[in-house]
Structure formats: structure tokens, C-alpha cells
Amino acid sequence: MNCRRCGRELATWDADDPAAYRRYNARGLDQRCYGQAAYDGTLIDYPRATWPVELLLEELAVLTGSRGMTLREAAAELGLKKDSVVCAIRRHRKRQEKVSA
Ligand SMILES: [Zn+2]
Fold it and tell me: What whole-number distance in Å separates Cα of residue 76 and Cα of residue 7?
């Protein structure tokens, strides 16, 4: 995987080559680029790569509810695939069932 800002490979730690290490931070950015994007206000240009499920459900409710989108359209609006959204919802429900059981 490469950083979405500088395009450099997000390398894992290698003791033989410490200079190549670019730690992944969030939003597909390495730590340095994330810091720079946060500083210059361009973080918004790099959509979230992961969504807390509660937030996802909230957004989906708005998009499919008042805005009348299909689940596929809503997922696309958030930059996600419908299948990943369905999986996330299923995982969330399973976790909730475990809690209440
Ligand atoms: Zn970068």
C-alpha cells in the first residue's frame, strides 16, 4: 500500500533499513503526510478509510432516509462498496447479539 499523498510505499519496520520506514497513520496516509494534511487543512481531501460502525449507520440512515438513496448509492456517496457496508452492518449486529445474549 502506498501513501495517498506522497505516493511512497508504506513500509513496515525493517531494522536493516530504518529510513524506509513510513508508518501508516490513517486515511491512507503515512504519519508525516497525515500531520502535514492536518496542518494545512487538506485532510478533508483524503476521505476516511475506516468508519466506526455507529457513525456509518448514522450516515446511512440519513442518506437512505431523507435523501432517498439506495444502500448502494449511499455507500458510493461515502466512498465505500455496498458489500463492505453490508458486511460491516452484519458484524455489528453479531456483536450486539453477543452482548445481549
Ligand atoms: Zn506520505
Answer: 24
